[in-house]
Design a protein that fits this description.
heterotrimer; A alpha/beta (327); B mainly alpha (292); C mainly alpha (324); A: 327 residues; Rossmann fold; 4-stranded antiparallel β-sheet; 12 helices; B: 292 residues; mainly alpha; MetI-like fold; two-stranded antiparallel ribbon; 11 helices; 2 strands; elongated
Chain lengths: 327, 292, 324
């Protein structure tokens, strides 16, 4: 697979996104200067620990941030249209249609009192003027492609009658049924068994390639990204710290955090040696500022890291935020 | 922080809500007033020598012959409304609290018993409790009063009988949850006597939700007693609670002598309202706690 | 489903049976109604004669057996006061109470649910906080006092509405209805409002709490993420979930309404079974009291059954259990 693609137009380009939550305890800067871009048909792995802001970035794209949160500043350019401050009606036409999202916990994604076919057909009818039976056929098709057995029976069932893996396949089906340009998959396999995980990853990847859908695959597991993605974006404390072609980043990480993540993968460990851990804990998202947030856990940090604002360095379709990157 | 007494913490959390705090203060004032009623009321309204029937049905603010002002008017027998209300408050509170306490003890005992024994005993007891719970308390009280007849003790019995199930249900529920927790297991392992375990370990942890139930149920008991007295099947005339006062004044309302019914009504209203606000807020505080 | 229903019906019959024993035993112990009906100068023999006529001299179990035999036929004895079959009295007055109860229920649904839902959606609003406070009032105000105040304001003070009675009725399908006449409406509006007060407060709280809980669920967010119209999410995705707790509560509430009708009917002199009950208790008219209780228990059991059935229709998660 040729991973060195010629320069493609950016499908979605997030520039300096800031999403804050205004709580009674203070302002939580869940997303703090995030940059990210994905090209058509590309798979981007968005990697980071829990609380790094990955999910909120996904919600921000779709405009699903609830009170007390708000997108404060930045741009989200989708096909050159800024999604921030887009009126809700036009945003609604994009959701589930050109941009879809798969949530993390398959147990809670589907409405327990509605049948599967209702929930799938709803997605079609909301965006296309088709009749019920055509929409149902589409639902049937996509469930088959996702490897769901006896799809007709499943369509007539209720969510609680399906296993976790099945439900997630249904959710994926709902996201892809309108052949969107982009789907945001928020840790879709984390809650599932390992065997199901690889199946679902495979099926999703195949279907997306077939339709030409780009994916932002959010995960905390670098190993998944290594096998699946074309590019990777590493996120820490609300912003991107390194981004680029997956092979390049994994073979030659620039940012200390990325390097730490790669070393932490148990598979990378020499046997009988203690597992590598990054010292310290992620910072509270209330006290972040423009300087490097990894400062207190980094073994290469110097005074400049704490005092000066850090921006992205670019080069070779790569970006990283570090004054003292690895070579 | 962790060494803070949980009850102190509860208190400070409670006081954060100004309205609930205000309600609690008003409630305490009412309780004190009712306790002191023989001392502070201008007249003993049930001492025949003190009332003057010729001064009956006077509007609020009239000056009496004995020199004091009938601040809230007089009823048809010439009793000072303010005094009657203070005495009535006392009786309403006494009956409400007494029945609440006994219902609490009964419900707690049965609930703990059911939870501790599990099995068929638990099922039978809870079946009965559920059946009774599906009927409104007022109906149960009415049915019981039909069979028991009139009298203060009978009213209290009827109130207890219609309310104990609320305590029993919560007690059993909490007890079941607590019994699954580790501190009970470790107490059992230490071979402490079952009695000690129930009283000293299980009981204190079951109390918080029960206190919430008690606050709310006492409010209900007071309202229920007032309703029963109003209907004529409650407390006897010798023990005029606020409900009876209201019912006495009912007929006079149509002639414009509103004060005979309205003021006892307002007193009753404030009493129940403050109890409900306090109980409501208590429940709000304790609930998220329970989930943690 | 059928097995479930039959099961419940059998349970209900057992409950009725047990209740009848409890009631009968209790009422059996109450004072002697003969004293009330008799002239105090009546001779001992005359009293004994009356007792024998009313069957009051036989031992408990015999009386109960006679009672049971007639009860199965729907005969609960004759009223001591009116000397007609007690159950017949109940049936005569039942439509009035049911009419009042249904109007109250409808009021609490059509006022309670919308207000509660709005208060839930805009839960940080001042509106929501006001609504919550007013609902506490709804619980705390003793209903008889509210009734009195309503009468005082609207009847005595303004003279707009009549303070007692049922007003004109129209006969439809053999039953008397008052809501179809203007006069009847004027008579029913205050008692219905009075009776529905706590119900409205209850439904408001429940709807609000339900909305707050549901609106933050993942599946609602996912529904928005699918790009569904707001109205679709609201009326199908959210509403169907919220109906489940509300229906359960409505069933219970109807029971409460029936119970509190006793108070409202007394305050407004509404000629229903509630007023009949209070009068009968005071006059020691046992058969009427027994009939009232049996009728009420019966209605309650039917309501519970209906609510349970509706519940299984609304919530598919429950159905699997009943299929076992």
């Amino acid at each position: 697979m040729n991973k060195n693609k010629t320069h493609k137009s950016k499908l979605i380009d997030i520039v300096d996104l800031n999403t804050y939550f205004f709580t009674s305890d203070g302002i939580v800067k869940a997303v703090n200067g995030m940059n990210l871009h994905v090209s058509e048909g590309e798979i981007l792995g968005l990697v980071g620990e829990s609380g790094s802001g990955k999910t909120i970035t996904g919600y921000s794209i779709l405009g699903l941030i609830d009170y007390p949160g708000r997108i404060v500043s930045g741009e989200i350019l989708f096909k050159n249209q800024n999604l921030i401050n887009l009126d809700n009606n036009r945003l609604r036409h994009l959701r589930g249609n050109r941009i879809s999202m798969i949530f993390q916990d398959p147990m809670m994604t589907l409405n327990p009192v509605l049948r599967i076919d209702t929930q799938m057909i709803d997605t079609v009818i909301a965006h296309q003027k088709l009749n019920y039976s055509t929409a149902r056929k589409m639902a049937l098709d996509i469930l088959e492609k996702l490897g769901v057995d006896s799809p007709d029976h499943r369509l007539k069932s209720y969510p609680h009658e399906l296993s976790g893996g099945m439900r997630q396949r249904v959710a994926i089906g709902i996201s892809l049924i309108n052949k969107p340009d982009l789907i945001i998959a928020d840790e879709p396999t984390t809650a599932l068994d390992v065997t199901i995980q690889s199946q679902i990853i495979y099926e999703t990847q195949k279907l997306c390639k077939e339709i030409g859908t780009a994916i932002i695959w959010i995960t905390h597991d670098l190993a998944v990204v290594a096998g699946l993605a074309d590019r990777v974006c590493v996120m820490y404390a609300g912003r991107d710290v390194e981004q680029g072609n997956v092979n390049a980043v994994i073979d030659n990480p620039k940012h200390p955090y990325t390097k730490g993540l790669i070393s932490s993968i148990p598979a990378n460990n020499k046997r009988k040696k203690p597992l590598f851990q990054i010292d310290g804990i992620p910072p509270s998202l209330k006290d972040t500022d423009d300087s490097c947030s990894f400062f207190n856990r980094c073994n290469k940090s110097k005074i400049k890291c704490k005092t000066e604002a850090i921006n992205n360095y670019f080069g070779n379709d790569r970006s990283y935020r570090c004054f003292y990157p690895y070579k | 922080m962790s060494s803070l007494n949980p009850y102190k913490k509860l208190w400070s959390e409670f006081c954060e809500n100004k309205i609930a705090f205000l309600a609690l203060c008003i409630l305490l004032v009412l309780i004190v007033l009712s306790l002191l009623s023989p001392i502070i009321s201008p007249q003993d309204p049930y001492n025949l020598s003190e009332i003057n029937i010729l001064e009956g049905r006077l509007p609020p603010g009239t000056l009496s012959e004995s020199g004091y002002i009938y601040v809230l008017g007089t009823d048809d027998q010439g009793r000072d409304m303010l005094s009657a209300i203070l005495y009535g408050l006392r009786i309403s509170l006494a009956v409400g609290v007494a029945s609440g306490l006994f219902a609490f003890i009964l419900g707690l005992t049965v609930g703990l018993f059911a939870a501790y024994n599990r099995g068929i005993i638990d099922i039978l007891i809870m079946r009965f409790v559920d059946m009774q719970l599906s009927f409104p308390a007022i109906l149960i009280a009415l049915i019981l009063l039909t069979t028991l007849g009139r009298g203060t003790d009978k009213v209290i019995i009827a109130l207890i009988a219609s309310q104990w199930v609320y305590y029993a249900r919560v007690a059993r529920g909490t007890a079941l949850t607590e019994l699954n927790k580790e501190y009970i297991e470790s107490a059992l392992c230490l071979n402490l006597s079952k009695f000690r375990i129930i009283i000293f370990q299980l009981l204190p942890n079951c109390l918080p939700p029960l206190i919430v139930v008690m606050t709310i149920e006492i409010g209900h008991a007071i309202a229920l007693e007032a309703t029963l007295s109003f209907l004529g099947v409650g407390l006897p005339i010798t023990k005029p609670s606020l409900g009876l006062l209201i019912s006495n004044g009912y007929e006079y309302m149509l002639y414009g002598k509103y004060w005979i019914s309205m003021f006892p009504g307002i007193a009753l209203l404030i009493l129940i309202l403050t109890i409900n606000v306090v109980g409501d807020h208590l429940r709000d505080i304790l609930n998220p706690r329970l989930k943690q | 489903m059928l097995v479930f229903t039959i099961n419940r019906i059998i349970q209900s019959i057992i409950v009725i049976f047990l209740t009848s024993i409890v009631i009968f035993a209790g009422i059996f112990a109450i004072g002697n109604p003969v004293d009330l009906l008799m002239d105090s100068r009546a001779t001992f023999e005359e009293m004994e004669q009356i007792k024998a006529n009313l069957g009051l001299d036989k031992p408990f179990w015999e009386q109960y057996y006679i009672f049971l035999k007639s009860a199965v036929k729907g005969d609960f004895g004759h009223s001591y006061i009116y000397n007609v079959p007690a159950m017949q009295l109940i049936f005569q007055r039942l439509p009035a109470t049911l009419e009042l109860a249904f109007i109250s229920l409808i009021l609490s649904i059509f006022i309670g649910i919308p207000v509660g839902v709005v208060a839930g959606i805009y839960s940080k609003n001042i509106f929501s906080k006001c609504v919550m406070f007013i609902s506490v009032l709804g619980f705390s105000l003793p209903s008889f006092w509210v009734g009195l105040m309503l009468i005082m304001v609207f009847s005595v003070n303004f003279g707009w509405l009549p303070s007692f009675g049922r007003g004109e009725t129209i006969s439809l399908f053999g039953i008397e209805w008052s809501i179809f006449t203007l006069d009847g409406l004027k008579h029913i509006i205050m008692p219905a409002l009075n009776l529905s007060l706590f119900g409205i407060a209850f439904v408001i709280r429940l709807s609000r709490a339900g909305i707050i809980e549901i609106i933050h669920q993942d599946y609602i967010k996912f529904a928005y993420a699918k790009g569904l119209k707001n109205s679709r999410v609201m009326f199908v995705y959210i509403l169907k979930n919220i109906m489940i707790p509300i229906v359960t509560v409505l069933g219970m509430e109807f029971g409460l309404i029936l119970a509190f009708a006793v108070v409202t009917e007394t305050v407004f002199a509404w000629p229903g079974i509630g007023k009949l009950l209070i009068d009968s208790i005071n006059l020691l008219d046992r058969p009427v009291v027994v009939s009232y209780i049996m009728m009420t228990v019966f209605i309650f059991l039917i309501i519970n059954l209906i609510v349970d059935l509706i519940y299984t229709v609304l919530d598919p998660r429950v159905r699997i259990k009943t299929n076992d």
